[in-house]
Specification:
The complex is a heterodimer of chains A (about 525) and B (about 325). By secondary structure, chain A is of the alpha+beta class. Chain A has 15 helices and 19 strands. The longest helix of chain A is centred in the N-terminal third of the chain and has 21 residues. The chains are: A alpha+beta (about 525), B mainly alpha (about 325).
Chain lengths: ~525, ~325
Amino acid sequence: MTAFSPRHGRYLAASTLALAVALGATQPVAAETFRWATTSDPNTLDPHAASSAPVLGFLNNVYEGLVRRNQSMAVEPSLAVRWEALGDEGWRFHLREGVTFHNGADFTADDVLFSYERASGETSDVRSWFATVTDVQVVDDYTIDFLTSAPNPIFPGSIANFMIMDRDWSEENGAETPATDEERYTTLNANGTAAFQLVERSPGVRTVLTPFDGWWGDVEHNITEAIYTPIQSDATMLAALIAGDVDFINPVPIQNVERLQNTDGMNVIVGEEARVMMLGFPHEADALTYDGSPNPFTDVRVRQAVYHAINVDAINQTIMRGAVEPVSQLVTPDMRGYSEGLSARLDYDPDAARALLAEAGYADGFTFSLMCPNDRYINDAAVCQAVVGMLAQVGITVDLVTMPVANYWPELRADNFDMYLLGWSPGTFDAEHPIRFLVSTPNEERRLGSWNFGGFSNARVDELLPQVQSEVDEGVRQGMLDEITGIMQDEVAYVPLYSQPILWGVRDGVSVSPRSDNFFILRWVSVE
Amino acid sequence: MIAFVLRRVFQSIIVLLIVGLIAFLMFRYVGDPIESLLGQERTFEDIANLRERLGLNDPFIVQYFNFLLGAVQGQFGISYRAGVPVSQLIAERLPATLELAFVSGLFALIGGVALGVYTALRRKGVIATTIMTASLIGVSLPTFLIGIALIWVFAVELQWLPSNGRGEVVAIGGWTTGFLTSSGRASLILPAITLGLFQMTLIMRLVRSEMLEVLRTDYIKFARARGLSARAVNFGHALKNTLIPVITITGLQLGSIVAFAIITETVFQWPGVGLMFINAINFVDIPVMATYLMLIAVFFVLVNLIVDLLYFAVDPRLRVERPSSK
């Protein structure tokens, strides 16, 4: 079991990475075809038509943004070589010269302007990244300004997945706008600037990439061809890895991790994902949906009791095989804005839970219904089942309702829950992100709290959020984030549970580097 | 004969319309496609816009009518998930499913008839009883379990056959075939056995019991008494007379082979319409689901029609016009 702690996994990942870099630097290993499989095929190759992880993760190998993230999620130059704040008015990006697209066209500021217009248009699924952008101005061929309505210190990091397309290529192929409900050339074709170019695309069957000879960066990988196959069934994917049909799979089903580690020639890479799992409460509801009785969760003592009653370590050991990290906030320690001083969770203490319930007038407990998806997160239904058992021990009876995720969100949106399970991966890798979506009082007009199903509302949080968004001073900003996190913890807005693990399966001789957004970056792969 | 066919075609259209109606009634319970179409940072405005563009605000009967209107013009809409026309998606995926269904159907029919005859003739033999017992396993084990077991034995342990996919395919016009490459043929074996095993055991048991029944009849005794060779009696007379129910069942099973290919295709990542349908359900891809269900309905209806016509060919009694049949 010790061999499979996340800590060890991170060490393992770091060492394979070091190996990869060392090999790449000294003697290029004999180049290879690399085959990999994941459970979900990117449903489009258009970088502005979907903001889902399978799409953005895959396209990061083909397209590039102005900035990118390194293995530890820090922002680094990509198509922009440097950038600076224009006082309070926005950001200036100085672009890399001599970059070409896969079709040979030169990359200039005009392509960035085009990509901005395309990505912020009505049919784009990534337009929220530009919510604060008022205008984009081309200064010269290699300089471009993004003007914002207010100072936005995290703007460069928040557009790391904003991928740049070639204006001429897009226009020639009638793909000036992204689309989900119409045919687009860009759904099946791609023309980026990144280290790999698309050679073959057969949706749901196979996608082939080859290295782009004209790429501007230093090549660290030794792949000559990369073939991607989606394999939907976990068991089949595992079999494909062991049978040698693929070199890499994501994810390894958690119940098979130990087994794969004990298989000759196979390895499991464990990392910590940015996705934090939590339980949400109905803060606003008057009555429980279960039986219409008064909503006990409006009392903070009841929420604390639930927190005390849940044994995250037990969930980790029995359901997650020791692979997850318990969390105390809505972001993991790797994220920007994490509150170091607030890293303690409420103790697992059933007696304290019972005492709090008694104090709140529920000495005899109560009954409510817990909503849970069964195909969205790792072992989601099993985790909820465990929560049911733990709450039963402090006298709360839970009626568990599980369903596929396609039905789950509409139910939550319709306020059809007394408690629910939610996982959140902050797209900006900043603590502001979950506050904006999960903690801020829901406000359609200002686009706040769109995933705050329980309607948690705190005036001080709402007051601090705009300040956090525009505060340039790192220390002051962190102070405000700490205050918000403190309020969330005191109020038990959510019960943060754990962060999901990244579980990658590789055959021996393949080195890869996991990143906490679970993106698979081909240029960090080396194959023996 | 023509009147018969026309009558059946008319009935078939009614069946199709009802299938479509039920399908569209059900889609409301599959989930909301908006949730899978838009990312986590979407706004309420985005949701409302897309809902309007996709026509999801219309009552289901209007959505159904619009679908039918497009369908009669050959337009089945754009897949929400893949962003390409559904007709194109299905045209790409159908060859894989049909080839798999064809091979496993052939496997089931040949294997089933051969084993059925054998076990009927050697009723008390050790091999025959072993086959009969083993066939129980084929009937009772779920498809995905058989598939996974075959993968582990033949792909992982023995490494004889590929674990998933269709191998290299060759495009001939709009059709892609795996028959022409060695990897394509190797890839077919495991899924074809998985898909056909149940049907094979079914056909085998059917042939066996029919054979046993026929072998007891007087005309077989007479044939034997006449001194006909065992082969002529068994195959020329006995087997031929068992074929009517076998044809019915095989025909109906061919429909279910295509329909149940969903599970086999998922286990083997076989890029056919079944896998496409599973993806569509997960994504709440309404145009794809609707078209697939209609396609399967058309397929069942066609198979039934062909089975009825085959009766005419096989059973001379049906060709005699009887006044009472009016």
